Amino acid sequence: MAQFFVEETVIAEQEVGEEKPDIFYRAAQWCLLILAALLPVWFLPTTTSPVILNKVFFVSILTMVAALCYLAHAILRGRATIPFHYAWIAFLAALLVWVVSALLSPQVITSFFGVGGEVTTVSALVVFGVLAFMISALFGTPKDYARLMVALGIGFALFLLSVLFFALGGGRLLGGIFTDESFNTIGSWRSVALVLGFYVLLAYPFLLRATGRVRSVLAALFIAGLLGLIVVNVPITWGIVGFFAIMFLSYAIWQRVISGALLVVSLLLLVISLFGFFSQDIISAATPVVAPLEVNISHQATLGLLKSALGENLLLGHGPATFVYLWDRLKPLEINQLPFWNTRFAVGSSLLLTIPTEVGVLGALAFLTFLALVWLASLRAAMMNNEQWLFGLSAFVVLSYIMLVWALYPVGYTLVALGFIAIGFGLAVLRVTGLAPTYELVLFREGPSGFIASLFLVFLMILGAGGVYLSSTRYAGQVAFARGLDMFNREGNIESAETILQSAIRFDSRNSAYARSLSQLYVVRARNVAQANAAPRELLGSQFADVLDRAIRAGQDAIRASSLDFENYQSLGKVYEFLIPLGAEGAMQAAVTQYEEGLKRAPKNPSLFRDQALAYFAEAVRTNNTALLGKAETALQKSLELKPNYTDAHFLLAQIYDSEGNAPEAIRRSEAAALLAPNDIGALFQLGLLYYKANRLPDAEVVLKRAVANNTNYSNARYFLGLMYDRTNRRTEAIEEFEKIAALNPGNSEVQAILSNLRAGRPALSSIVPPPEERKSPPVDEN
What we know:
There is one protein chain. The protein is an all-alpha fold and 783 residues long. It has 3 domains: 2-188 and 294-443, no CATH class; 517-641, Tetratricopeptide repeat domain (Serine Threonine Protein Phosphatase 5, Tetratricopeptide repeat); 644-783, Alpha Horseshoe (Serine Threonine Protein Phosphatase 5, Tetratricopeptide repeat), CATH 1.25.40. The protein has helices spanning 2-18, 23-38, 52-77, 87-104, 108-113, 122-138, 142-167, 189-209, 212-232, 235-255, 260-278, 280-286, 299-312, 323-330, 351-382, 389-408, 413-432, 448-491, 494-507, 512-531, 537-561, 566-579, 587-601, 606-623, 626-642, 647-659, 663-676, 681-693, 697-710, 715-727, 731-744, 749-759; strands spanning 79-83, 438-442. Strands 1-2 form a two-stranded antiparallel sheet. Helix 4 runs antiparallel to helix 6 (122-138) and helix 8 runs parallel beside helix 10 (235-255). The chain is globular, with a radius of gyration of 30 Å.
């Protein structure tokens, strides 16, 4: 049977060489050419994440439309051309494991579709697989392959222009988040360097053999890419590029294609890579753009998480796109001592370490087998001594680069999409070099086989159309969600924001963030209704009850959409906590129950114990029940066991000590804690706050200064130190403290108001109510 198809393919390819591709075939090619050219620069200010969410929609739609056009082309021809390689068997095996793992996951919908820019969901794997397959099917001739390379070159040029545009401050023309010079169309700053490395290595082989204008264009892109790498200045990229410069030179000597140009370019690439890797400080001082701080998980932490996850489910893991929930539950306790302790990570230290954590050993083995087979095939193509060896070399180099990046770095959506484009043209080059067979599937045969083929074709078209529909509705939900948030945050229009958020949920009820945000919006509405003293009492009561009922229902909807996300339980707990001062029966217990559910999913998160303490404290204040103060204190002690320097917990603990009416005992306890841990900024802050409230201002100054000395960015310690200066008539020093706080916390309106008061000769807290020492949370949010 296989021999029959091979013979049929030879005849078909001869016929195709004579026939003109129809409009659907050309449309499919153009979809992928547009994707290749615009992928690195595509973004729109329509969603909460202008870059990633728009790229997901862009890639998904163009890939699915290309597949539908290719199916239409096959119907018109009466047969479908199927490029075959054994790697696709491994890919289908990986996809099967992904599906089974997703079905067994407690987050089935999330594992299949995700909620944003996840790269490990079932749907993402399908889109990436279809993308690679369509490239191999549509660009399997030297002419078509060259067109794809031109499209990638255009993408390279556009990306360089975009980096230059934003680095020179062009984003100010767009406003908003685009004004930052480090804004880019990839995502993270380090990813910009890795994408530049991808394009530099893609251009390198062609530069060595090109002539005339083509060589000039490639040389300009190559040099501009190296300059871009210098500006972005990321060590990992220099190391990888330098490694491949050595490989290039070794390959050329081995293949006996060494020339003066090759030697010069290879040595130039190697020297620049070494300079970039070992001269970080020099480059940083000379470049105009300050690289933003990026936070990633270490390989050690990821391996620890991987070990724990595989210990629970070795073969199939916990489900695709569940790494963030595993992180919440299993993260190392030491993370809580770091400044970014509450950052949630959707991927580990690298993509290839994230995959086994989510889909187990079976999924990882199948996916790695797929990558290995594609890599070996591209290596064969690179070693051929025919006129297409250059295509094979370019595919092999870029595939090797992208796999190394996937193994070392937590890549985002763009680098994964570029990786599957590389896989696609790595398989396409097998057709160009004649290393892979192409089968022809005849669609319109007599008998059952023809009917089955037609039925299968219709099934694929339904899947493609369904993919377009799901991608479109999800994107519509993302756009509506961004509009709803903008309507509330910028215009303060609660009614319009509510309507738009409800439409976002109708478009995509799978995203728990929509329902969670709607619940929080209802709480704001309830607070406004309660403060509307002019309204009739009966109407006020009915409106209030209705809005709160909606808030609770929306919070419950969020939990149903994502039962593993502790933030959904925390958000619903806040709704019940809002009811405690109003005397609602059972509100405190309902809030505590939600926080306990959250702790089951994030047992090392100190904020959940702090929230429990807030609920106990609010009920204790309302009922004058001192026993509840003890429960609140116990919850805060648990919070501080998880994070000893947790300012929020220390602040609330000082409030509880004060509420117990025994300030001397509270100070004695805090002095003992500070003595045991003299460098613990949390204990120092708590003691300084108690001194401040007891009007022991000289003692407060000493302790708060020590806290600031241990952490110069400790805004809350500076806040009360500044208030202490104001109360002791040292206005100049107070202004200096609050100016430092303003620099650390741009956009904090209260700090700006205090500075205005001080500069006008008024008390710092003039017109600011309630005073910070009477609040339940620190005045400056340092989370």
